[in-house]
Every structure is written in C-alpha cells, then in structure tokens.
Prior knowledge:
Blueprint: H1 8-19, H2 26-38
Amino acid sequence: MATRQSSSKLSTLASKVLSGTKTPTKADAVKLAASVLSQDEKKGQRK
C-alpha cells in the first residue's frame, strides 16, 4: 500500500503553528486540514 506524506512545506507550517512561532491564517488552516484529510486511509468516523 502506498503511503501518503505531507510536503516539507506543510510539515514546516504545522511545526511553526504547533510551537507558537506562527499564528495560522484561515488559508493555513485549510491547507493543514486538507493535508490531514487526504492522508486518512479509512474515511468516516471511528468509534
């Protein structure tokens, strides 16, 4: 099975947001959410 990975740019953005060195814009939040959702192998909610 192929693995999905975030780009280096997105990983850096996530790191900066989590460390508090960057306040995410709405566009940043959308990019990060899209990355997470694209890597979700099992769609839908889990118990």
